[in-house]
Amino acid sequence: MIIFLNPVLPIAPSSQTWTCDIFMMKPLFGKVGIFGIGLLGGSVALGMRERFLAEEIHAYDPDPGALEDALALQVVDKVHASLGDWVSELDLGVLAAPVGVLVNEGQKLARFSGPHTLWTDVGSVKGPVVEALTGVLPNFVGSHPMAGSEKAGVEAAHAGLLQNAVWVITPHGNTDPTALSKLRDLVQNLGAYPLEIPPALHDRLVARISHLPYLLAVGLNRLVAQDPHQDLLMFLAAGGFRDLTRVASGSPRMSRDMVVANKEALREAIEDLRAVMLELENQLEAPEALLETALEAKRTRDSLPIVKRSLLPVMNELVVQVPDKPGQIATVSTALGNAGVNIKNFEVLAIRDEGGAIRMGFATPEEREEARQILEGIGYKVR
Ligand SMILES: NC(=O)C1=CN([C@@H]2O[C@H](COP(=O)(O)OP(=O)(O)OC[C@H]3O[C@@H](n4cnc5c(N)ncnc54)[C@H](O)[C@@H]3O)[C@@H](O)[C@H]2O)C=CC1
Ligand SMILES: O=C(O)C(=O)Cc1ccc(O)cc1
């Protein structure tokens, strides 16, 4: 069964109906722990921070450099180089380590977890992780945001990565319904689309739509690397080769772990692709048949849904913290208006007890910088 839910974005109602009452809303979670503060873990933390979904965000990572960067970039509030009692205080734990270590990491965390913590992971393969951790980590529900990039590490993390992304949730027969519902809330509040799919079906589908394309990208690059005219091929590589092989630029370790963990489903997909390639090879002698296949490919490719990543490029956005006092929206917009800075997009984000936040979009990075200086100049905290 597949359930597709519309996201509930924490966008403010129109200015006529907006009241300060929403400033009294509590964040969805108190303490949150991110285990593996890289591209995905960092993006979850930033998304939660930007939308005030957590009171305090902690990170654990075996790499001291990752912890240092996460603190310096203000992605999290506190960092830990080891697991300990702090884990038992978490309301939400997110495993965002490489796929190959998720089961082991989850089993270790089970020894520290409190009974009330909601646990999830963002790993690219779900079957083995969900099987091993359901009922072991309390309130565990597996998940997989279908969003990423060819970059790795916390310095590449950004909240916009998850915005409007399809975020697969993979319930198991023993999944606790309350935990499932809380995870759905989190995904929707992060601005993503929760899509529920059983773990085994998820793995079969991502083998075809994500893992096989990755192996193909590796294979196409290997053909170039092994060719006696490698240098010339590099010069000739135009948009097609680049588009088709972009994912080979991602973290090789992350991707290696991902394909190995899904090897059964991937073998089937490779087998099917072999048959298709053979068919295509034969169709070189049957141009009419090849044209039919090419037309079908164009129809399929052209009907892929267009994913709108965010209302404005993430780079031109500012988030301003505002206290729970009357007239804040007027003060912010008047200060910018008086300086001739045009606000292209205006959104009131989720709110915590002591105040709220406004997200604004600007047409250019220069205008955003000007807005930042003006708002900081009149005492606002801006990110
Ligand atoms: N990169 C992508 O496009 C996507 C990745 N994912 C999944 O997200 C997870 C993380 O991937 P990325 O953020 O891309 O990788 P990354 O390499 O950017 O970050 C992984 C982090 O995990 C840390 N780590 C390594 N061993 C650990 C352990 N035992 N415990 C805790 N942390 C540990 C690393 O030091 C690193 O900071 C993986 O499971 C991956 O399958 C999911 C969707 C997209
Ligand atoms: O960069 C892209 O287009 C990707 O497809 C990245 C990606 C990598 C791994 C995942 O589990 C999900 C998405």
Automatic annotation (TrEMBL):
Domain of life of the source? Bacteria
Enzyme Commission number(s) of this protein: 1.3.1.12
Pfam families (alphabetical): ACT, PDH_C, PDH_N
Q: Where is the signal peptide?
A: none
Q: What Gene Ontology terms describe what this protein does at the molecular function level?
A: NAD+ binding; prephenate dehydrogenase (NAD+) activity; prephenate dehydrogenase (NADP+) activity
Known catalytic reactions: prephenate + NAD(+) = 3-(4-hydroxyphenyl)pyruvate + CO2 + NADH
Keywords in alphabetical order, please.
Answer: Amino-acid biosynthesis, Aromatic amino acid biosynthesis, NAD, Oxidoreductase, Tyrosine biosynthesis
The chain positions of domain Prephenate/arogenate dehydrogenase read: 30-314
Task: Tell me the route in metabolism or biology where this protein functions.
Answer: Amino-acid biosynthesis; L-tyrosine biosynthesis; (4-hydroxyphenyl)pyruvate from prephenate (NAD(+) route): step 1/1
The UniProt entry, under PROSITE patterns, shows: ACT (PS51671), PDH_ADH (PS51176)
> ACT domain: which residues?
317-383
Q: Name one GO biological process term.
A: tyrosine biosynthetic process
Q: Does the keyword rRNA processing apply?
A: no
Do you know which InterPro entries this protein is assigned to?
A: 6-PGluconate_DH-like_C_sf, ACT-like_dom_sf, ACT_dom, NAD(P)-bd_dom_sf, PDH_C, PDH_N, Preph/Arog_dehydrog, Prephen_DH
The protein's name in its UniProt record = Prephenate dehydrogenase
Source species of the chain: Meiothermus hypogaeus NBRC 106114
